[in-house]
Amino acid sequence: MNITKLLENETVHLLRRCMSYFAPYKMLVIASFAALGLVALCTAGAAYLVQPALDKIFIDKDRSSLMLLPIMLVALFLGKGVGLFVQKYLMSYCGLKVLERLRYELFAKIICLPVDFFGETRVGMLMSRIISDVNLISSSLPELIRIIQHSLTMVGLVALLIYRDAQLAFWACLVFPLAVYPVIYFGKKLRKVGRNYQAKIADISSYMQESFNGLRVVKAFATEDMEKEKFSEASSKLLRIGLKGKVYNQLSSPIMELIGAVGAGLVIWYGGSQVIAGKSTPGEFFSFMTALVMLYDPFKSISQANNTIQQAMAGAERVFEILDSRELVEESGGDTVYVPPFASLSFEDVSFSYPGTQEPALKSINLEIKAGQRVAFVGQSGAGKTSLIHLIPRFHDCQQGVIRLNGLPLKDYTLSSLRTGIGIVSQDPFLFNLSVRDNIAYGRPELDQQVVEQAAKAAYAHDFIMELPQGYDTIVGEKGVKLSGGQKQRLTIARAIMKDPSLLILDEATSALDTESERIVQKALENLMAGRTSLIIAHRLSTILTADKIVVMDGGQIKSVGNHQQLLEKCPIYNRLYTLQFQAQPED
Ligand SMILES: Nc1ncnc2c1ncn2[C@@H]1O[C@H](COP(=O)(O)OP(=O)(O)OP(=O)(O)O)[C@@H](O)[C@H]1O
């Protein structure tokens, strides 16, 4: 199979796909072409003027031409300038608009992908696609237009060459095929370099993301130097690829210049002999030479534009890989809207494995939860508690069995109504870098201050919020860094209260807060749980003691279900867990 042909087909396909993004700006593109026509005409016109300038002013000594020609020259350059400005502005406008749309589409697609996708893909890589690869694509149409612009200019100039002297033009254009070869050769090389470069940028973004996120660990282990070393290695790789790109980019010009010089040499040789023999005037010859020299500029620009397009195609490959991927399917739910109140939740023979793993994380789970119950899940680390509760908001889908909510399979509900109906408070309280108020009312900005304050009061957060520098308007910092662990937890509890879910999922924090904070968080949680069905991954003694039902898990299976007293008597696993995990804790 002809590889070159394959590559060309792919380029055409990618270019077409890129161009479809520019389709809404058709009128602007047409206007831009009109501006281009003006530029081409003015450029060719300026070259044409050289002949009357030389022959009429310098040889015939014509005074009226002396006045007229400079004015015409200025007018032509004015026309060219205006044309160029309009064309460039319109193209930049279209490019930036396309950039905005692609960025949005990519973000919108990625944020709707299932949780599993984020488990397997590095976040930094995704960020680099949204920022840097998309950026490359936006230059594709403007560069394509540049190619058309310069091709038009070249047509104008070549027409002038032929008009001036067809034979001389033949000699000048003889070297043309030679000049095209480096354009194609370097274009291909640059496409490959572009691909590698973008991949390395993604690596570096991922690496930075990880190091900054894990900054505390880095500091605690005093491994800054090691991290610097690793970064510098990755950065040097990027430098090497970047330099390779520059070599290809910069080599194409001198090589073309050399080929151009050969053409010019041929012209001087032939054209000069024609002037000496009296067959043409020096004015005709210089006008010809001017057009020839002017040809170099657009030709060089075409080669540069081709280089940029090749790099844009490298970005396009990576962006469309995500946008068009059949495997990356956005989450979808059913058509039924889940309307509280919560009546029941049942797991019927549910088994689940994480993608790419052999051993199932959950095996044949059967469980029934009724309205108003408080159900605690216990088990050692890795028993499957988190996996089980994450199936309820459909962060993952089970491969076998069915989970029913109010009698209907979870898959029948629309994702948004299902998730809106479920409140989740996890052990790692996540806050956005927004104000306290916006964090509590997250997703519901329409709620007024009073409602937000009520939720904060129920979560025992109001008092500390009032002590913050700007009260409810205080920005909490990325991930809530400006707050203590207990304060962050209380804000996430207020957020859950605000959501008013009918079913609550709680992952109790294992990391110990001090006794006072712990007591307040506990009271806030009690307010949150009041009157709601709650599923709790239990780490506190008080939770298992007050639970209506305790589910004991081990190795992805439910080993036993009952209340504290029953389990102490009949379940050895629970007995052991209780002795190891809970017994030493004070009863609140
Ligand atoms: N994203 C994942 N991909 C692959 N396997 C996973 C993933 N998350 C968890 N597992 C595996 O699934 C099993 C159950 O894990 P799960 O997190 O549900 O346990 P857990 O009981 O909640 O533990 P812990 O109390 O430590 O949070 C474990 O063997 C774990 O290694």
TrEMBL record:
<dbReference type="InterPro" id="IPR003593">
    <property type="entry name" value="AAA+_ATPase"/>
</dbReference>
<dbReference type="GO" id="GO:0005524">
    <property type="term" value="F:ATP binding"/>
</dbReference>
<dbReference type="GO" id="GO:0015421">
    <property type="term" value="F:ABC-type oligopeptide transporter activity"/>
</dbReference>
<feature type="domain" description="ABC transmembrane type-1">
    <location>
        <begin position="30"/>
        <end position="311"/>
    </location>
</feature>
<feature type="transmembrane region" description="Helical">
    <location>
        <begin position="169"/>
        <end position="187"/>
    </location>
</feature>
<feature type="transmembrane region" description="Helical">
    <location>
        <begin position="144"/>
        <end position="163"/>
    </location>
</feature>
<dbReference type="InterPro" id="IPR027417">
    <property type="entry name" value="P-loop_NTPase"/>
</dbReference>
<keyword id="KW-1133">Transmembrane helix</keyword>
<dbReference type="InterPro" id="IPR039421">
    <property type="entry name" value="Type_1_exporter"/>
</dbReference>
<keyword id="KW-0812">Transmembrane</keyword>
<feature type="domain" description="ABC transporter">
    <location>
        <begin position="345"/>
        <end position="580"/>
    </location>
</feature>
<feature type="transmembrane region" description="Helical">
    <location>
        <begin position="66"/>
        <end position="86"/>
    </location>
</feature>
<dbReference type="Pfam" id="PF00664">
    <property type="entry name" value="ABC_membrane"/>
</dbReference>
<keyword id="KW-0472">Membrane</keyword>
<dbReference type="InterPro" id="IPR036640">
    <property type="entry name" value="ABC1_TM_sf"/>
</dbReference>
<keyword id="KW-0067">ATP-binding</keyword>
<keyword id="KW-0547">Nucleotide-binding</keyword>
<dbReference type="InterPro" id="IPR011527">
    <property type="entry name" value="ABC1_TM_dom"/>
</dbReference>
<protein>
    <submittedName>
        <fullName>ATP-binding cassette, subfamily B, MsbA</fullName>
    </submittedName>
</protein>
<dbReference type="InterPro" id="IPR003439">
    <property type="entry name" value="ABC_transporter-like_ATP-bd"/>
</dbReference>
<feature type="transmembrane region" description="Helical">
    <location>
        <begin position="254"/>
        <end position="272"/>
    </location>
</feature>
<feature type="transmembrane region" description="Helical">
    <location>
        <begin position="29"/>
        <end position="54"/>
    </location>
</feature>
<dbReference type="InterPro" id="IPR017871">
    <property type="entry name" value="ABC_transporter-like_CS"/>
</dbReference>
<dbReference type="GO" id="GO:0016887">
    <property type="term" value="F:ATP hydrolysis activity"/>
</dbReference>
<dbReference type="GO" id="GO:0005886">
    <property type="term" value="C:plasma membrane"/>
</dbReference>
<dbReference type="GO" id="GO:0090374">
    <property type="term" value="P:oligopeptide export from mitochondrion"/>
</dbReference>
<dbReference type="Pfam" id="PF00005">
    <property type="entry name" value="ABC_tran"/>
</dbReference>
